[in-house]
Each structure stands twice: as C-alpha cells, then as structure tokens.
Amino acid sequence: MKFAINKRSIRFRLTVWYALILSAALCVFSGLTWFMMQQRLRDDVRRGLDEEANRLEAFVRGEEAEVPPADINEEIGDFCHALPSTSFLQLTPLSGGQGLRCGPPSTGPRAHFEVLQRAMTVRGMPYRLEIGASRQEMHRALELLQTLLWGLVPAAILISCLGGAWLSRRALKPVDEITSAAKAIGIENLAARLPAPGTNDELERLTEAWNATLARLESAVAVLWSFAGDASHELRTPVAVIRTNAEIALRRDREPEAYRESLREIAAESERMTQLVEDLLFLARRGSRDAGMPMGPLDLRDILKEAARELHSLAEARGIRIRVSAGTDEATIAGNPAALRRLFLAMFDNALKYSQSQTEVRASIVRRDDRFVAIVEDQGMGIAAEDLPHIFQRFYRADKARSDGGHGLGLSLAQSIAAAHDAVIEVSSEPGRGSVFQVSFARRANAGVAVA
Fold it and tell me: How far is CA 140 from CA 43, 143, 150, in A?
C-alpha cells in the first residue's frame, strides 16, 4: 500500500519545521551538555591535584622539623605511594641536580594527564612541583555520555517527528472539518453555517468570517431570486397585454380604427417593456462600478434644466408646474451626462406621480461647503414613515402607488447612479405635505479633467 506525501501541505511543512527546529535544539543541547561535563570533570581533577599539592607542602613542612635532610626524599617517596596509581609526582630542583619522581613511567604521553605545576621550597631550596592525574577516567565518562547522546538524540528526533505529525494532524483537524462543512453548503442550503469551535483563536475567527461571508451570500442570492421573480412578474404583464390585444385583433375582421387602437396599446406596452428591460440592464451593468459610464466635466445646472424641459409636457398634462432655480454660479463636477439626466428624470417622474393637480414641483442646486446639492421638492401625498427605508429597493412600491403604472425601478436607478458618482441621495417626507429628495455631489478640484 503506497502513501502519497504532499510536500506542499501545511501538515508536512509543520512536521518538517518541527523536526528541524527540535533537531537543532537537541544538537545544541547535546553539545553544551558534553562541553559542560568536560569542564566539570576537568575542574574536579584540577581541584583534586590542587588538594594533593597542598597536602604535600603541608607534609614537607612537618617532616622538615623531624626528619634529617638526608631522609627527606625517602619521606616524600612514602607520600607518593599514597597517591592513586594513575597519578604521578615530580620534584625538580631549580638550582640543578637530581630530582624526585614517582608514579607511572615518564614514557607515557603528557597529553594523557592533567598536570598542575607550582613552585615550592624544601629545606630552603627552590623546587618545581609537577603533579598529574590521568585523564582516562574523565575520557571514559565523556565517551559514555557521548554514546548516550548519539543514541538518545536520534531516537528523540524520530519520536518528535512522529509526535509532530500527530500534533499537526490533530491541530489541523478543525480545518478539515471546516472544509468538509463548507463543501457541503451549496446554493440549495445557504442558510447552513460552519460549526464554531469555541476556542477563541484563529480558527474561530476564520469560522466567523466564513459564516459572515455565507450570510452575505445568502442575502445576495435572496435578493437575486427576488429580483428575478419581480422582473418576471413585471415583464409578464406587458407581454400578456400585447398577446391579448394581438389575439383579439386576429379573431375577426375589424374596422381600421380598431386595428389602430390595438396597435397603439401594443406599442404602449412594448415601450413600457422596453423601458423596463433597459432599466434592468442598467442595474445589472452596475455590478461593475463604472462600466459604460465614462466621467467628464459637466455643469449640474444644465442637466437639471434639460430633465425639467423633457418632462414639461407631462407636467402640464397633469396640471403641475415645474420650477427650476439653479442659480448663476457654476456647479461643475466630474460625471456622466446621460446617467445624471436619467437620475434627475427619475426624481422628477417620482415627484410628478405623487403630486396633485395645481401643485408645484421645485428643483434647485445649492452649494454647501465643498458639495453641490441638487434638490427636488414636491407638494404631493408624501411617503409614510414605514415606507421610507424601502423606497430605494428594486420593484418596491407603496400600496397607494400600485396603480400609477410604474414598475418600481426609478428610485433604485437614481440611487445606483448617485453611488457611481460618489454622491449621496437622501429623502425626507411627511404624509400629506410632500417629499424632498436631495443628491449631494462632491465638488472636485480636477473636475476639468475627464475621468475614464
């Protein structure tokens, strides 16, 4: 049975790094242990030699008072017999002459001994004292320690690698569980959420971030389904009207005027459906912020006046007057003329729909600090407080406005266009007293330069 090892996996890399770091730490620890043990053993040998030298000096001083000069060397020789068999002692007169040596033969290499030298006086004569101890026991202890380290360190590294692999697998197990749970979530069960580990660590924060993303995705998909359903519903009506008129016109022969009336109704519904499709396409393209909307310098006053002129005939037909007060100061921003014209048309159209005959719709542009504000105010029925938070939603229409012939996309388009121009659209309204829509544009210093 073959096991494939993914050398790029986090588990493999964690295990390798853990093994390398632990191996380096064990090697450093082993080297320091061996070095400190060597120094400790050498210090112990030197301390023993120093004590033996002190004992010899004390012995010589005591014997000088009791033993004749001729017998002093014999007494020192007796002292040497009490030394360990692996140690040696040598007294060499500094004035020349034969010295005294006892211990192992002098033919052995000095490197095998730890040697202590000092000056001492015997019967007033200066001598050089050399006392040494074999390093054999020290080397044997160090070799034993080295053998233990060479045997234990690889075993410890092997155990640590196995332990590191187990720990990494256990540490990454919650990640695998999160991955499996995430794979199980699809378009059909977006309400499901990843299980929170409750550890208050990076994994819990990752889970919370994923759950927040899923919540946003669920909300976006719900809006998408609602949008698709509303769009289908809105398109069904004009298509049904067109089909019905066509079928009625084809059932039997009619007068030319009857055919023209049917064609007029078909044309009107086709125009309404065309406008709806264009609005839907515009909103769909807004997924890419500035797609198809090049910016350039323009004067808001001109756009506002043009939109007012376009709806002048409609306003007159309803007995409503549009009054524009744009001032004399320039209101230049960077924007898209066609999009802004559509924004103001939506605002005027909304005001005309809900205004009563013999009333007035007022439009103006004012400057507030470093912003230009376009204001459209009507004297219509106003907007209920419970409807205000929703009027910019796609296809939203208050109950009392359902028979106005609109499809509920105008204000949503206006808000989308305002967002594309980094503008803020706001509304204030009171039932029975009208509504005030305001769009605030930033006055840019580079408005004279076209923006792609």
Answer: 16, 5, 15
165-187 pLDDT tens trace: 787 777 777 777 777 877 888 77
Q: Is 226 helix (H, G, I), strand (E, B) or coil?
A: helix
Q: Which of 36, 17, 31 is nearest to 153 (CA)?
A: 31
DSSP string covering 135-174: SHHHHHHHHHHHHHHHHHHHHHHHHHHHHHHHHHHHHHHH
Mean pLDDT (the chain) is 79
CB of 315 closer than 8 Å to CB of 321: yes
Cα gap 343→327, rounded to integer Å: 20
Indicate the SS3 state at residue 108: coil
Determine what percent of the chain is predicted with pLDDT higher than 70: 82
Q: Are residues 217 and 336 in the same domain?
A: no
Q: Dihedral angle at the C-alpha atoms of 254, 258, 259, 265, nearest 10 degrees?
A: -150
**b/e code 157-178 from CB counts within 10 Å (16+ = b):** beebbeebbeebeeebebeeeb
Q: How many CB atoms lie within 10 A of CB 71?
A: 11
> Are 281 and 334 contained in the same domain?
no
Token duo for residue 249? 């016109």
Sequence letter at residue 351: A
Q: Are strands 360-368 and 321-325 parallel, antiparallel or unpaired?
A: parallel
Domains held by the chain: number: 3
CATH of the domain at 50: 3.30.450
End-to-end CA distance of the chain: 61
State whether 117 and 62 are in the same domain.
yes
At a CB cut-off of 8 Å and minimum separation 6, what does 43 contact? none
What CA–CA distance (Å, rounded) separates 398 from 419? 24
Contact partners, residue 322, CB within 8 Å, separation at least 6: 308, 311, 312, 315, 348, 360, 361, 363
Task: Judge whether 293 and 413 are in contact, CB under 8 Å.
Answer: no
pLDDT in tens, 100-142: 888 775 545 566 788 899 898 887 788 888 888 888 888 888 8
41-57 average pLDDT score: 89
Q: Which domain holds residue 249?
A: 202-285
**Amino acid at site 293:** M
CB 128 within 8 A of CB 95: no
Q: What is the pLDDT of residue 447?
A: 45
Helix axis angle, 300-310 to 337-353, nearest 10°? 50
CA separation for the pair 229, 231 (Å, rounded): 5
Q: What tokens does 283 get? A: 């909103």
Assess contact for 340 and 300: CB atoms under 8 A.
yes
Q: Counting every residue, how long is the chain?
A: 452
